[in-house]
Amino acid sequence: MKAKRMMIMLVGSAVVFGGVFGFVNFRNTMIKQYFASMPKPVVAVTTATASLDEWRSVVPAVGTLQAVNGVDIAGSMSGLVKEIAFQSGQEVKRGQPLLRLDADVELGDLRSAEAELALARTSYDRSRALLRSDTVSVAAVEKAEAELKVRQAKAGGLQAQIAKKAVTAPFDGVLGVRKVDLGQYLQPGQVIVNLQDLSLMLCDFTVSQKDLGVVAVGQPVRLTTDAWVGHDFEGTIAAIEPLVDAKTGMVGVQAKFPNPDRRLRPGMFAKIEIVRPAGDKVVTVPTSAVSYNLHGDAVFVVRDGTPAADGKAVKTVERVVVQLGDRRDGVVVVRQGVAVGDVVVTSGQVKLENGSLVQIAAEDPLRAPARTALQ
Length: 375
Hints:
Layout: H1 2-37, E1 42-49, E2 51-55, E3 58-74, E4 79-84, E5 91-92, E6 97-101, H2 104-132, H3 138-164, E7 166-168, E8 173-175, E9 185-186, E10 191-208, E11 220-225, E12 228-244, E13 250-258, E14 269-275, E15 280-286, E16 298-307, E17 313-321, E18 323-328, E19 331-336, E20 343-347, E21 357-363
Parallel strand pairs: 1-21
Antiparallel strand pairs: 1-20, 2-15, 3-10, 3-14, 4-6, 4-9, 5-8, 6-7, 8-10, 10-13, 11-12, 11-14, 12-13, 15-19, 16-17, 17-21, 18-19
């Protein structure tokens, strides 16, 4: 009796579990069939065509700007500031007076020295006249002449001291912020104001010794700064250091940049591009078309497809691993993986995978032509 009940329970359990497993298997099969028969979604993307451009390779560098003439103006004499003849930020010309120190004591000494000089000159002239009549000796005349020269030197030294009490601009330029006040006692070497000639800017930077073959005096240089985004400043190489740094293998280079609008300022950090003289024909695509990955950079290339129900063309995409080169101005060189004329996806790549269906919404308006020369 117990064995019969046990058999009934086992048969019942087998029927129940078999039904459950059969239902789960049926459900999974139907789900697979549903997803297999479900149409792939069509993704709207923008595209651009890979083009063949003339690409001039550049030698990149980072440099610091300095004015062609720039100095902290300081006095060489001590004294009280009696007159300030400039304003902060003022434009000045060479030789324009900037500051005058109190020179009353020196002026008094100069008047005394000039009186002594006049007496020494009179004595010398009298001695020379008497020498012709043999009234005085030659030694007396020479002594009078020496005394005259001493008095002249003393007067000249006092005049030089008085001249140094007046500070003038050494060259044309723009003054900075005034650092002294009226009535202040000025020490020798104390900074009065900064003066910069902004008409021409110099940029010092270094390049690797391997690039010496493509760097020459007079070669075009392009400069960009964070202060003026999107604006390129054009200049030329002015000088190249004859000595290579043995520790780093770098060579110092200086370039000059006209600065008529005074946008460039001393002390700015700048990005430098030395344009190589010869250009190569290369395949370029917008930088937005590249999907960057640790396993390899890739682009989605549009392939032929079939017409959609609404009449718009539906195409497929293929993920292609590419080898990239230089990049600038929104485009990048593709050395391998893309051919001229290939249509690449420039937006919407996040939703794509290999074989995805796409509709081209519009040509990418951000596509920028590659530069073929300095403009």
